[in-house]
Amino acid sequence: INDQTVTFVGENISNHLSGASERLFAGTIQSNLGNFYYLFEDGTFSIVDPNQEEPIVEIFSEEKADWPAIIDEGYIYRVNRTESSIEGYNFNGALVSGTPIYANDNIQFIGTPLIADITGDNIQDILVVGQDDYSVNIFAYETNGNPIEGFPLYIGGSIGKDVQPIHPVLYGDELYAISHAGDFRAWRFLDFTSSQWPSRYGENPYNKVSAYIEFTQQNNGNFSVLNKAETYNWPNPAGDETNLRYELEAPGGMVEITIIDYTGRVIFERTVQSVGGAPEEIQITTRDWGSGAYFARIKATVEGRSETKIVKIGVAH
After folding, report:
1. How many CB atoms lie within 10 A of CB 153?
2. For residue 181, which of 87, 157, 204, 218 is within the disulfide window of CB 3.0 to 4.6 Å?
3. Tens-place pLDDT, residues 182-232
C-alpha cells in the first residue's frame, strides 16, 4: 500500500485507488485453489480474486465495521452492529445459509465472531460477544443459526452495550474473556475438536491478519446449469430492495434476468456473467415499484445449455 494505491505484486490486477480515509488494510488468503486477497477500506470489506475478469468483489460495508472471521469454503462471518446480527457470506458476496442470526432484544452483538467446534460434531460453531448496559456475555450458535445449549456465558459487568470489549480468545479448548469492569473468566470445552478462527485476528500471532482455507467441490452433483433450490429472492415480500439469488454449475455462464408486473410489462432487465461454484446475489431496488406481485425469469446458460426458473416477488410498502 502506497498512500491510497494498493498494488498486488506479481498478479495481473490493475492498481486499486482507494478512497479510504481512516482505515486501509490488505492481506493474503491462501487456499488449495491459489491465493486470494482482501481489502478493508474504512468500513468496506472486499475479496480480490486475481483469476476473475472483475477481480474485486465487495462483501459488506458498514460504518466502523468490525473485522470478520474467514474460514473454509471461503465463508466470511461478521457482526453487523447496525442490525445486531451475525452475517455469513461466501466469496461471491452472497449470504451463507443459516444467517443472519439476530440477537435477543436489548442485546448488542459486537466484535469479531470466534469460529470453533465446541460440540464435538466436527462442524465449526460461532461464538460472539453480546452486551447490554449491565453485562457482557458470550453467545454461541451452530452455523444453521440454532443456539447452543448452555449459553450465554456471563463474563461480568458492562459500562455500555456499544463499548468495544476486550476481545475474547480461544487457546486450544479453553476460552478466555474479560468484562468492561475487569472481571476475568475462563472455560474449558470438553467436546472441543478444532478452531478455524480463535481470536479477533485469526490464528496468526502479532495481530497479523490472514487466513488459510480449504475449498471442497462446490457443485454436489444434484443440479446442472442452474441450482433451482438456490434461486430465489429475499426478503420476500420486499420493501425498498430485494436480493435475487442464483447459482450456476460452472464459471463463465450467463444469467439473463427479466422481471414483469402482473400486466406483463417489463420493469427490470439485466444480463450478468456468473462467477460460478457458489451462490451469487444481485440487489434490485424496488422502492419505486407499486405494492403487489411481480415475476422474475432467471435464465442461466452454461456452454450452450440453458435452464430457467420463475420466481414470484412480492412487494409491500
Report:
1. 16
2. 157
3. 999 999 999 999 999 999 999 887 767 788 999 886 555 578 899 999 999
Query: For residues 206 and 315, what is the distance between their CA atoms, to the nearest angstrom?
Result: 49
CA dist., res. 162 & res. 89, Å (int): 24
Cβ proximity of 75 and 216 under 8 Å: no
Give the integer Cα–Cα distance in Å for 315 and 317. Answer: 7
Q: How far apart are CA 242 and CA 89, in angstroms?
A: 16
**Burial 114-144, CB ≥16 within 10 A → b, else e:** bbbbbbeeeebbbbbbbbbeebbbbbbbbbe
C-alpha 275/C-alpha 53 separation (Å) is: 9
Between strands 75-80 and 69-71, the pairing is antiparallel
Largest separation between any pair of C-alpha atoms in the chain: 64
